[in-house]
Write a structure and sequence with these properties.
Mean pLDDT: 81
Oligomer: single chain
Low-confidence stretches: 1-43
Shape: globular
Number of helices: 1
Distance between the termini: 67 Å
Length: about 170
């Protein structure tokens, strides 16, 4: 016997489905489908340009598409962002590397962090060694094991007092 959805429930479901489709992005902000670069590859254990809401499942992540907004679920391996002008939210990661510019990273727990791009903002809770080779980057954190500067005009604002090594110029740990 076929059951129909009561009209009030259908009215509530449509906006939720539409919001989910918008949040996940669509053809307008993704590369053409079917390309090897965008497809998750199980053999290499790397998610390439994943859609927002993707499950990491311990896999590495590679973001090379500019103008991105990605939220990843679960624990990730090594996260590498070579793209620019975007935001990524990853709860747990083995490491994060940001090579692009104007990238925002939100993260709760990460091992090592390397930033070679410029004008990035990283909001981390717990981080291991943070290396900043780019310029004008900002790192906010509750706990950072150590900070190494090579670039210029960078700011790290942790709640603790990490070990600091500065080979750059005009860098600050607040």
């Amino acid at each position: 016997m076929r059951r129909s959805v009561p009209r009030p429930a259908a009215i509530l479901v449509l906006p939720i489905v539409a919001a989910a489709l918008v949040a996940c992005g669509g053809p307008a902000d993704e590369a053409p489908s079917g390309t090897v670069e965008d497809a998750p590859t199980a053999a290499s254990g790397t998610l390439r340009n994943p859609a927002s809401g993707a499950m990491c499942g311990g896999q590495d992540v590679q973001v090379s598409r500019d103008d991105f907004e990605i939220v990843l679920d679960g624990a990730c391996g090594n996260v590498v962002v070579t793209a620019s002008r975007g935001a990524i939210n990853v709860d747990h990661a083995t490491s994060i590397r940001v090579e692009g510019d104007h990238v925002t990273v939100l993260n709760r727990h990460v091992g090592d962090v390397v930033v070679t791009g410029s004008d990035n903002t990283l909001n981390l809770t717990e981080a291991g060694n943070v290396q900043i080779g780019g310029d004008r980057n900002t790192v906010l954190a509750r706990n950072v094991a150590s900070v190494e500067f090579e670039g210029a005009g960078n700011t790290v604002n942790p709640s603790n007092t990490p070990d600091v090594h500065d080979d750059g110029q005009d860098n600050r740990v607040l």
